[in-house]
Design goal:
By secondary structure, this protein is an alpha/beta fold. The chain has eleven helices and 18 strands. The protein has two domains: 190 residues, Quinone Oxidoreductase, Chain A, domain 1; 141 residues, 3-Layer(aba) Sandwich (Rossmann fold). It is globular.
Length: 382
C-alpha cells in the first residue's frame, strides 16, 4: 500500500452513453465468505424500466460490508459485489425515469423512498425495501447486488426509489459519506434521539457513524458531549467534531454507565450507541438519566440478543432504534447537502485513508484492525 496511491483505477470501460449496451467494467467480487475480494471484469446490463445505471466515482467501506463478508448467515447470497456507501454520476436511465438525467450527481441509497407506501406516507420512517434483482454477471454467473447498490463496482444499476440527487456543486469525494456513515450517525442524533439544546449526551463508539453522531449532537446544541471508545487514538477527531469530554472505559474499575452517572449527576439526557455490541447497547441505555433519558441503538448486529432489566425502563428511560438516521432517504440527502454547503458539516475529519478500489482488501484489513475511520476509495474519474 503506497503512501500516495494513484487517485483512480486505470481500467478501460466498454460502454455507450445511450444505456442500451452492456458495460464491461471492473468490480470487487466476493465469491466466498471469509475470503479476500477479487477484482474482476463484470458485465453490467442496461437499466430496465424505472432503473438507472450509475458510474461510481467514490465509495467507502462500512462495517456492514464486513458483516456480510465475515458474519453472513446467508451464503446463498454469494457471489456478490459489496459496497453501499458511494457517490457517482448517472450514465443512463431506463423507461419511466423522469427524476434523473444522464450527468446528474447522485447517491445510491440502501433504503428506499417510493413516496407511495404506508411508510413513506406516514412521514415518520421508512421500511428497509431493497432492489431484489441484479444486473451483474461475471464468468457466466449471476452476481448479486448487495443492498441494491453495490458501489464496489465502476458501474451499477439501481431502482429509481433507491437513488438521491445531490447538488451539482457537491464534492463526490466527500458526499459519498451521505450514503451511510454521516446520514446514519448524524440523523440518529438529530432525528431519532432529537437531542435538545443545552443537553448532555454520550456517544458510544467512535467509528465514522459515532463521529457523525457527535457532530449531530453538537449541531443540535448539546452542552456536554461525552465521546466513549476503548481506542484513545480516535479522541482527537471526536473533539474536532464537537466532543467536550472523552472516556476510555478501560481506564476505570467500574461500569462506564456508572462513570457517566457520577460525572453528570445521575446520567446523560441522551446516549447513542454506534458499535453493534449488545453489551455496549446495555451500557449506553443504563448511562441515561432516570425519568427522561433517551438511548438510541444504531450499531447493527443479528448475532446476539440484547437485554436490560425492566426496572431500567419502568424508571422512565426510553430505548429505541434508528435506521439510516431516521431520514426519509431522498429528503435526507437533500438536507445533508444543504448543511454541507452551509458549512455545518465537517466531512474531512471522517476520511482517514485514501485508496483505490483495487486496494479494497487493504482497506478491509485496516477496518478489521480498527486502524481507520473511513477509507475513501476512488473508483472512476468524474
Amino acid at each position: 500500500m503506497s503512501a500516495t496511491p494513484p487517485l483512480f483505477l486505470s481500467f478501460k470501460h466498454n460502454s455507450t452513453r445511450g444505456g442500451t449496451e452492456v458495460i464491461k467494467c471492473k468490480a470487487a467480487v466476493a465469491w466466498e465468505s471469509n475470503k479476500p475480494l477479487v477484482i474482476e471484469e463484470i458485465e453490467v446490463a442496461p437499466p430496465e424500466a424505472n432503473e438507472i445505471r450509475v458510474k461510481i466515482v467514490t465509495t467507502g467501506l462500512c462495517h456492514t460490508d464486513l458483516y456480510q463478508l465475515y458474519d453472513n448467515k446467508h451464503p446463498d447470497a454469494l457471489p456478490t459485489v459489496l459496497g453501499h456507501e458511494g457517490a457517482g454520476i448517472v450514465e443512463s436511465v431506463g423507461p419511466g425515469v423522469t427524476e434523473f438525467q444522464p450527468g446528474d450527481k447522485v447517491i445510491p441509497l440502501p433504503i428506499s423512498q417510493c413516496g407511495e407506501c404506508r411508510f413513506c406516507k406516514s412521514g415518520k420512517h421508512l421500511k428497509h425495501l431493497l432492489f431484489t434483482v441484479t444486473r451483474f454477471t461475471c464468468r457466466g454467473k449471476k452476481v448479486y447486488q448487495f443492498m441494491g447498490t453495490s458501489t464496489f463496482s465502476e458501474y451499477t444499476v439501481v431502482h429509481k426509489n433507491d437513488l438521491a440527487k445531490i447538488d451539482a456543486a457537491a464534492p463526490l469525494d466527500k458526499v459519498f459519506l451521505f450514503g451511510c456513515a454521516v446520514s446514519t450517525g448524524y440523523g440518529a442524533a438529530i432525528n431519532s434521539a432529537q437531542v435538545t439544546p443545552g443537553s448532555t449526551c454520550a456517544v458510544f463508539g467512535l467509528g465514522a457513524v459515532g463521529l457523525a453522531a457527535v457532530m449531530g449532537c453538537r449541531n443540535a446544541g448539546a452542552k456536554k458531549i461525552f465521546a466513549v471508545d476503548i481506542n484513545p487514538d480516535k479522541f482527537d477527531r471526536a473533539k474536532a467534531l464537537g466532543a467536550t469530554d472523552t472516556i476510555n472505559p478501560k481506564d476505570y474499575d467500574k461500569p462506564v454507565s456508572q462513570v457517566l452517572a457520577d460525572l453528570t449527576n445521575g446520567g446523560v439526557d441522551f446516549s447513542i450507541e454506534c458499535t453493534g455490541n449488545v453489551e455496549v447497547m446495555r451500557s449506553a441505555f443504563e448511562a441515561c438519566v432516570k425519568g427522561w433519558g433517551v438511548s438510541v441503538v444504531v450499531g447493527y448486529t443479528d448475532l446476539h440478543d440484547f437485554a436490560s432489566r425492566p426496572a431500567q425502563l419502568i424508571s422512565g428511560r426510553t430505548w429505541k432504534g434508528s435506521l439510516w438516521g431516521g431520514y426519509r432517504p431522498k429528503d435526507g440527502v437533500a438536507d445533508l447537502g444543504k448543511a454541507l454547503l452551509a458549512k455545518r458539516l465537517n466531512l474531512e475529519e471522517f476520511i482517514s485513508h485514501k485508496m483505490t478500489l483495487n486496494e479494497v482488501n487493504d482497506a478491509i484489513e485496516l477496518m478489521k484492525k480498527g486502524q481507520c475511520i473511513r477509507t475513501l476509495m476512488a473508483v472512476c474519474p468524474e
